[in-house]
Structures are given as structure tokens and as C-alpha cells.
Amino acid sequence: MGWQSLDAMDFAGKTALVRVDINVPIDAGKVTDATRITAVLPTIRHIAAAGGKVVLLAHFGRPKGKVVAEMSLRQVLPALEAALGHPVGFAEDCIGLPAKRVIGAMEPGDVVLLENTRFHPGEEKNDAELAASMAALGDIYVNDAFSAAHRAHASTEAIARLLPSCAGRLMEAELKALEAALGKPERPVVAVVGGAKVSTKLDLLGNLVGKVDDLVIGGGMANTFLAAKGVPVGKSLCEHDLADTARTILDHAKETGCRIHLPVDLVVAREFREGAAHEVVTTCPDDAMILDAGPASIAAIAAVFDAARTLIWNGPLGAFEIEPFDTATNAAARHAAALTKAGGLISVAGGGDTVAALNRAGAAADFTYISTAGGAFLEWMEGKVLPGVAALER
What we know:
By secondary structure, the chain is of the alpha/beta class. It folds into 2 domains: about 5-170, Rossmann fold (3-Layer(aba) Sandwich); about 185-380, 3-Layer(aba) Sandwich (Rossmann fold). The protein is built from 15 helices and 17 strands. Strands 5-6-4-1-7-8 form a 6-stranded parallel beta sheet, sandwiched between helices. Strands 11-10-9-15-16-17 form a 6-stranded parallel beta sheet, sandwiched between helices. The termini are close together.
């Protein structure tokens, strides 16, 4: 662990610049899901209780370096104040006089939110001058935005090189969970990778076959692998042009000793709709499409989970949004959750569809850790260096 936590810092009388991700959904001017706000409360409260001044840096939307009124962080302020239970100050800019005036009036324990960092073109360019202007506002930098850590931006990377820096509680939890899952995992390690297309997860698959003991491939991705092995897939979603790539991944897995698990039976239907007539087959008819894995495949996945000590999950096993094609995803998720709850499995999952699928299955609460970071979680699974994390390790 090359980064420091909040516990390593003395915040008394200091101004802490805390990078958070509160890019929350808003409808009619009101926050509709405050999950990301709630997630950063432990960091804010720790610094405030330690006698520090908390200055929040954050982005909102994609204003592309321009001031866009509809993307002002001011509209997040009421939800932030409600979550904290006390007033939060606001500055009309994240640098310069507007920020300095508001911060200058702060008392220890106060919290201030600065305006959208992406209103400045230098933010997404990782501009050193913008980072220096932000750094001039505080004494300590805290990154609690793992979900933005895969971006080398001024408020996530450059600024960390200018001030004493550490990880916030949310960032710390993410990094510890990921280290337990792939850094120094308890073996055997199984990864579940699902979703629609192989093309979006080539780097991920290439990295995992060299690191995990078992790789379960599901969803539309599995169809591409089945087709590459000569199994008919009918009208199923399938990237036939990636057959050679799929075979290369299968060959690489043999070389590394990674066991790849594909569906052995298939749930097929003639139309994609909820409650559509369906059947379980081993070969997809020409006029049908594969929409889920069958009962034998579910049993095989459960057996893989039973033998594992660590599970990493990204992507559903079928068309989880509609019944009955959510059966494999739900069954596998609940089995993993039960094993985790019993103490036999360390389970880490992430990605938008994954979180939605695990919540739908009622399994998320019993997983060891659920990452809310989409792109950053995926890039970590791909083995890529995350600039926001690397900056903290300097």
C-alpha cells in the first residue's frame, strides 16, 4: 500500500481540499439518488471532527470547459446539506477570489462546496496552472473519488503532486477491496465477466486469463465464444467477426492454466420480450436467440463458486432486465451472496449493469464490496494504472 489514509494526516487548523464524486442524477432541479453523496460523508465528518476545514472539489456533467448553468453544483447543495445535517457554504468558482473569500470565512469543522471543476478547460487537460490555483486554496489534498481516478485531471492527478495527499474513506475502501480481489487474493480466484459484447472487454479478458483460476463468461459475450467453438447461436447477439480473437483468448487461457466456463445449456426464445415463450436447449435453433444460461450452466457456476475463495464480478449472465431471462444472473448472485455471508468467499463486484443486476437479485447487501465506480473499476480489472491512485502513491 503506497498511499496514506486520513489517519496519517493532522487536520487540526488545516484546510483540506477533498475531491469527491457527487455527479448525481437530478430531475426538475432535485437530486433523485443521493448514494454518491452519502458515500463521502465519512470522509467529510472525519476531517471536520479533527478540526479541519472541508473544501469539496467536484465535477458535474460534461460542460467541456465552459460555464453551463444547468451543470452548476449549486443544485446539489440542498441534498448535500440534508445528508450532512448542517449548512454547507458555496463558492461560485473552484479557484481565485470567489473561492478564497468563502474559504477565508470558514471556521474549523465547516464545509464548503466549490463550483464545477469542469467549468475550466484545464481540468480535463490536467493543466498544471489550474492545479496550482486549486492547491493554493488548501493545506492537504484528499482524494475520495475513486470513480474519477481513471482520469488524469487537474483535480485528481496534478493537484496531488502539489500538496500532502491521502485517500479518503471511500477511496480507501475501494483500494483495499481491489487489492484483496486481484492484488493479493485468496485462491482460487474466479471472475465473472458478462455483458453484451466481447469488443468492449477485450483488455479485461486478456488481463484476467493471466490472473484468475476460473473465468465464467456470460451474456452476449458468451455467444461469441460459443460461435468461435463451432456452436450454432441462431439469431443471437454475437460478434462473429471476433471469432479469431475469442479463440486467441481461449488458447491464452490454456497456456496460463485459467479454466474458462461457457454455458453448457441455453435458454432460447423467438422474441425478446418479458414472458416470451422459451425453452432450454444445448444448440440454438436457427430462428431463435440465446437470452440466458440454462439450469445445468447455473449448477456448474455454483460449483465453481463453491471451490473458490475470491470472486470478482463484472456484467450479467443473461438478459437480466426481463423475466424469465434473469434466472441465471439471479441464481449465481444469490449463491455468491450466501457463500460470502457464510464466510467462505470474498466477493467484489462493480460496473453499472452489475450493480443493478445484484440489487435486482437482492444479493448486493451480502457481497463483500460493491464498487459504484464504472469506468475506474473496469480499467482496474483490465490491469491499467489509474492516474488518480498513482498520484497518491508518489
